[in-house]
Specification:
The structure is a single chain. By secondary structure, this protein is an alpha/beta fold. It has 12 helices and 5 strands. The protein folds into 2 domains: about 10-210, 3-Layer(aba) Sandwich (Rossmann fold); about 225-295, Helicase, Ruva Protein, domain 3, CATH 1.10.8.1080. Helix content is about 50%, strand content about 10%. It has a 5-stranded parallel sheet with strand order 2-1-3-4-5, sandwiched between helices. Helix 3 (about 65-85) links the parallel strand 1 (about 60-65) and strand 2. Helix 2 (about 40-55) packs across helix 7, helix 8 crosses helix 9 (about 245-255) and helix 9 crosses helix 10. The longest helix is centred in the C-terminal third of the chain and has 20 residues, at about 190-210. The chain is globular and about 65 Å long. The chain starts with 17 loop residues before the first helix and ends with a helix.
Length: about 300
């Protein structure tokens, strides 16, 4: 069954009491989680390919229309504070433009011309990673954007909920998550949207791990932009070095609140030497610590 089909299981959803409705909707969400499992090998292959391009200085570019665009924007925007991913290394290609994130723009998803034009305006090239997201897998705007990006040599990843769709065939790395009919027919903000978000969670987090922005399960590249996050940064340095909190706080102050640098400073390195070693280790704290032990 496709995302547009009506399921017999949900035909009388409106006749049920609230608890019955919520139970069935929850059941459908559990199905969305299960639908991701068969796609794990495809997601892992996309992660490895994407990390290679991003190490060369490429960008993550999220493409979509409607719900899929909003889910993509949520994932991409969170990379900046969580992993300190550079703002100029993430971009969005949205049917109807940014205003469509809050209000539907008529016929926006049908414009293949706009999809191609936005890719051209961004100057998408061989180092970039372009993710096309569409529940149907046939949204003209998204398919056209991915095809245009692939034509420019970018790595393309297609995430769709229907098999045999154009987006999957247009992508270097097709990721199929067959969620089937929705509890409310065609409302892909439900199962399809949940599955898309899970895939993006897995993909972007694994990419950041591959790029050394996670160490021992900690967000060592996060931006400590408020009191809570500054406290978290201090706790990370304490946990990773075994030092006292005052020592961690001082190291973070000297290191400009950079957790990776602070860890190396606690180990006895100067800030300049720590920064040089992190650079030589391509931002990977584990590799930097290993190199420091061997020196």
């Amino acid at each position: 069954m496709s995302t547009e089909d009506a399921s017999a299981r949900y035909l009388d959803l409106d006749r049920l009491p609230a608890i019955g409705q919520v139970c069935l909707l929850h059941e459908s969400q559990a199905e969305a989680v299960a639908a991701v499992q068969p796609a794990l090998p495809s997601i892992a292959a996309a992660v490895e390919a994407a990390a290679e391009r991003l190490r060369r200085g490429g960008r993550l570019v999220y493409c979509g229309a409607g719900t899929s665009a909003r889910i993509g924007v949520q994932d991409g925007a969170e990379l900046l504070p969580t992993f300190n991913w550079p703002g100029d290394k993430v971009a969005f290609v949205i049917a109807g433009g940014e205003k469509a994130l809050l209000r539907a723009v008529e016929n926006a998803e049908d414009s293949t011309e706009d999809g191609c034009n936005q890719i051209t305006e961004l100057g998408v090239g061989p180092d970039d990673v372009v993710l096309g997201i569409a529940a149907s897998g046939n949204t003209p705007f998204t398919v056209a954007a991915v095809e245009a990006a692939r034509g420019q040599g970018a790595l393309t990843i297609g995430i769709a909920n229907n098999s045999g769709s154009r987006l999957l065939s247009a992508s270097d790395h097709p990721i199929l998550i067959e969620t089937g009919a929705e509890a409310v027919a065609g409302s892909t903000r439900l199962k399809a949207g949940t599955a898309q978000k899970i895939v993006l969670n897995l993909f972007s987090t694994a990419v950041m791990i591959q790029l050394g922005r996670v160490y021992r399960g900690l967000m060592v590249d996060m931006r400590p932009t408020n009191a809570k996050l500054r406290q978290r940064a201090e706790q990370m340095v304490v946990k990773l070095t075994g030092c006292e909190s005052g020592v961690a706080a001082d190291a973070l102050l000297r290191a400009g609140r950079d957790v990776k640098l602070a860890v190396l400073v606690v180990q006895g390195m100067s800030v300049d030497d720590a920064r040089a070693l992190i650079g030589q280790s391509r931002g990977n704290l584990r590799a930097a610590l290993d190199a420091a032990r061997k020196s």
